[in-house]
Amino acid sequence: MLPQIKLIKNISKLSLAILAMVFMSACSAENTATQGSISPETAAVDTAAKVDMSDTDTESPSVVFETSAGNFTVKLNAEKAPLTVANFLQYVESGFYRGTIFHRVIGNFMIQGGGFTVDMTKKATRTPIINEADNGLKNTVGTIAMARTNVPHSATSQFFINVENNDSLNHRAKNSRGWGYAVFGEVTEGLAVIEAIKTVPVAPRAGHQHMPLEAIIIQRIYLLD
Question: pLDDT digit string (tens) for 90-135?
Fold first, then answer.
């Protein structure tokens, strides 16, 4: 029996590694097309449009996601990921996420959204931000992180929520293969909604391999007082 158990464990590890490679490849195809020319050294950061955090009572503000599948709350970590949180809140406060969808749902991996409308129109985004994946936060169940292309510093508006502990997405080295994906918060209420979303039926559509058959719509995201 022991050899069989080891074989199962090895297969599980291989499956997770394959999922990680598919994820990085799909992010490259699904994020902003013009980001491919941005190198880690020259990635422009939109510092002028940062959200003013001075009126926030805590370094960990919370936002509510109102979706067609139910609501959930995410606590943002502005201390560990200040650029990422400021960028995300700018999109939130501008109403950017209204009517966008979760366009990638992989039930044993993650759910991704924040870039497309129901009719699969890709929304125009702001300037890419610096990747803060080296902040010590890990891609564990219930955490939210920035989606990007295979260029480390190319994240704009898209995000994903981990539905498994995805160690392969964590920061390992400051190079194109090791940068990882920047975690900037975690779900604190409504995790059952995430669990429900990850089980919805999906199929290939419009060039995307894991689209929900029935759209999961983000009706709005708003900052809690």
Answer: 999 999 999 999 999 999 999 999 999 999 999 999 999 999 999 9
DSSP character for 221?
E
Nearest-angstrom CA–CA distance, 155 and 148: 4
Q: What are phi and psi of 207, to 5 degrees?
A: 85, 5
Cβ pair 218, 102 in contact under 8 A: yes
CB 65 within 8 A of CB 197: no
Rounded distance, CA 7 to CA 18, Å? 16
Q: What is the rounded average pLDDT for all residues in the chain?
A: 83
> What string of DSSP letters covers 136-184?
S----TTEEEE---SSTT-B-S-EEEESS--GGGS---SSTTT----EE
Is residue 4 scored above 70 in pLDDT? no
Q: How much of the chain is helix, strand and coil, in % rounded to 5? A: 30, 30, 45
Looking at residue 129, the DSSP 8-state letter turns out to be B
How wide is the angle at C-alpha 23 spanned by C-alphas 153 and 119, nearest 5°? 90
Question: What span, in angstroms and rounded, lies between the C-alpha atoms of 42 and 181?
Answer: 19
